Each structure stands twice: as C-alpha cells, then as structure tokens.
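Below is how a single chain appears once it has passed through the pipeline. First comes the sequence as given, then the structure the pipeline wrote out for it. We keep one example in the README because the format questions we get most often are answered faster by looking than by reading.
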Amino acid sequence: MTGTPHPNFHTPGRRSRAAAGLAVAALATAGTLGLLSSCGPPPHSASAGASHPAASPMSGMSMPASPPKTGTSTSAGKPVTGTAVAIQNFAFSPATLKVPVGTTVTWTNQDTDAHTVTSAGSGGPLHSAALATHATYSHTFTEPGTYAYLCTIHPFMTATVEVTR
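Resulting structure:
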C-alpha cells in the first residue's frame, strides 16, 4: 500500500481536533487567570492600603490566600495575658496567651467558618466541638505548663496557652 496513509495517521505537523481543542482551552484558562490576577482595589482608593471587599471577585471566599503567620502574639512576640482568645481571619489571637493556674480561658469564633480548639498531640485537655460563628468554648487550666493547640479543620491554625503558678 503506497501513496495512501492509514486513516488513523496524521500528516506530520498537524494536530488532531482534540489536541487543538485542548490548546484553545488552555489559552482560555490562562487568560482568565491573568484577568483574575489583575483584580484588586480601584486605583483611587480612599486611603492607601485600604481593603475594598467589593472590589475583588474573590471576596466571597472564606479561606485566606495563604495561611496566616503564627507563633507571635504581639509585635514584640511576647505572650499576652488575659482570659479571651478570638478566632478570626483563620488565626487564634493572641497566638500565645499567658495565664495563672486556675484561669478559665474562653475562645470565641468570629469567623464565618467553623473552627475547633483541640490540644496538639494526644491526651491534652482541649477538645471543643466545631464552633459555629459566635460560638464559644471555655476551659479552666488547673496545672502549670505549656498547652499547644490547633484547629483540626484548619491545622495551620496553631496557638499556645502558657499556664504559670
């Protein structure tokens, strides 16, 4: 059989319709991603660095673009004293709380997503259920020590309670 190629072979340099369709889809996806990456606040913001949730098509998303940094509770990195921990912006605030023995600490979820307060590792005293928005969880610390905890739903959320005598 000379002169006529088999019908399943293509002429070199030509793409199949499926390959051409994939190339078009890839270009469309790249264009969409390029448009989304250029979204942001309007060029004439009321104040520099102001956040404009309505300006971004991604503002309805509940996860941050990257996990928040943890390990410090103040700009100086020192533990904060008190009895309350806010759960907001996918972070525990303060990240390090220092309390005396006998203190009851209360966590309040201020995010729209559910979070937990759970001891890191096994056998720790902190075991909350999933906390809906505005729900609270409290625990009284009766022994001195350092209690690391996290959100089991979002394991990048970590913090510590330091209990002293």
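Residues 6-76 have pLDDT under 50 and may be disordered.

See the next section for the split statistics.
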